[in-house]
Amino acid sequence: MTVTATKRILAPTSPPLTAPVHVTPQTDDGVVARVLSCETNRCEVEVRIPLEAGFQRMVAGREKELVLASRSRIARIGIDLTPTSPIAIERGAAQFRARLEVAIPGYDVGKYLHDAVVPGLRIGRLVFCPEERRLDSRGILDAIREGALQLPAAYSIDERGRFTIRTHRRVYDLTRPLTRDDVLTILASAEGRSVLNRMQVARDVENVVMEPGQGVITSCSMFLHRHYVVLDREPGQLGKHLQAIVLDPVRTRGTRVFLEFTNCSQETIVNPSVSARVYEAQAVEPAVRVFPVVLPKGTPAELRQKVTFDATLALFDRLQTAVHGGYFDRFVAVVDDWDAIARGEAPRLVWHSPNGNGDRIEKLRATRDYSNDPLPIFGTSVLSEIPLGARSTVLLGYFPNLIEHVELCKAAIDRRIARIVFRRASFEHGPFLSAKDQARLADYAALGVEVFWCNEDWGHLAVHTFRGLRGYFLQPHLEARFQNALVIAIYGSARPLTAVDDAKLRELLTSLKGLFGDNLAILTGGGPGAMQQASVIAHDLGLLVGANYIETVDQATNKDADFYQCFQDSSRHNRQRWFEIASFQIFCTGGLGTLEEIGLTMTDMKLGVIEMSPVVFFGQHGNEPYWESMRRQFKVMVQDKRAPDWLDKHVMMTDDPRAVPPFYKRILELG
Questions:
Q1: Given this model, what pLDDT does residue 484 score?
Q2: For the domain 301-478, what is the CATH code?
């Protein structure tokens, strides 16, 4: 399918203003510097945590307000971390001795400690907890009312702001015993957390019971947007929490906030709990990633993107004047200085295919003989002429193909290049990328190469940014909001909602903004109808809008998205993976496409690919909910043991917007 892109159709939206990033004042993870001794179930180690100069200045004289937080994955397999010496800060690092020991014997990982606890193992971080940023009881209540904080149900708060976390009646078991390789992967691999998420499954119980000397992994529901929480470490009558005691803003969202307890007493503990303190996170103004184009003094900041896009597009137009637009006319240009783009100067290295549509095109740099080159159409051959460490920028007419990708990766490894700017996603598919293209974008990110899209459809220069495992294109000034936003996926038909349903959807999104605060984003399929209506409503409410566009013959794409990804029609199911960034799913009135998305979403929840969260089916048909027949089918599936029980409990079908927030709070067990 050939898609013709419409040139420079500006999105009819006003992107929200840049928002600060809320971060925990903490170090990077420290590592095991030396293993002092190791035996079954216990190891003694020396730990070294590097300290940045700014962090050292911030905590100077206040070292007593530092707390140690172990990595979550260490605690989640039942290993506790305990400092056994004072923390000494010298020569740009914190150093201390610590004990790693098995605190939850049921996970049976003690026999692998000798292999897993080795020098270089990332182990935990130091967190600065200044007393003046700690919230008292009034501050916590104000944050809850503003939607800036959602705490677990039935919380209690003392006069100094210490609140009690009561866990779910839920424990987490392993699908099978952990092997040595499992433990090494979980603790040392970048993918360790996702491996553990697949192996650690929830089991609802009447009561969470800990026998003497035993431990348990359980959870609670919590949403932190602008705060971080520090759990009390000291053992009490209701159990001792392991050293993973800091819950970060943004990352702490949802029903699967893990809590790890051990019973150090001689008596059985039923339903453990832990007290905690809330601190205001640091609001950091993000460094806006834009090309450093030199602008006249007094130029409004909001014009930076437009100027940058125009300058880049003008250079592309000038370079491609002689190119007829065929697939084999894949020019490559190398730019050393971004200011040169703004000035319209010629790049240092330029290559054109010698045979475009049968016409001879002169190479603008003829330093090599390509007459016998087996790959004469791939201009990335000129990358070898860039000096090592130059960190140049590469302009490409099209998103890289396989050979170009390999040569770009080689150049990235040698630090010859630092960023890529492409003009068109595909010759055959217009603005839509293939599954292989998505994998190549991940490779560039892994190699530290920035990718920009000079996107004529949107009239802007977009940067590719990852959130978790999924990457999206967006204007650089929106990166911070994108990373911090709580995302709600909204599905629906390409046919428009009725005026009545549109008004109800507006009321629903307004009420969710009241529940979770204004740090929200919606994510749709980017089509017309219900998807576009939801996007318009979201922008009216000042929310971010995202889209996973799909190349289809039965619907056009809207241009309402602030962050987006584009998929060729052959990547329809792969596209669903990009909805994983959403915390909640709302299905409006829809047809076969929406029905397919329902099945994929529910299956992902069943398999643990995405978090089990409340699902809302929103819309009416006659005297009953539009999806009522599906609810009846869900009940049959649960009764016949062909589906898990939560399929019946975690689903609401309604057209009443006021019913949804209480449903969320009940299922999420929020106060």
A1: 84
A2: 3.40.140
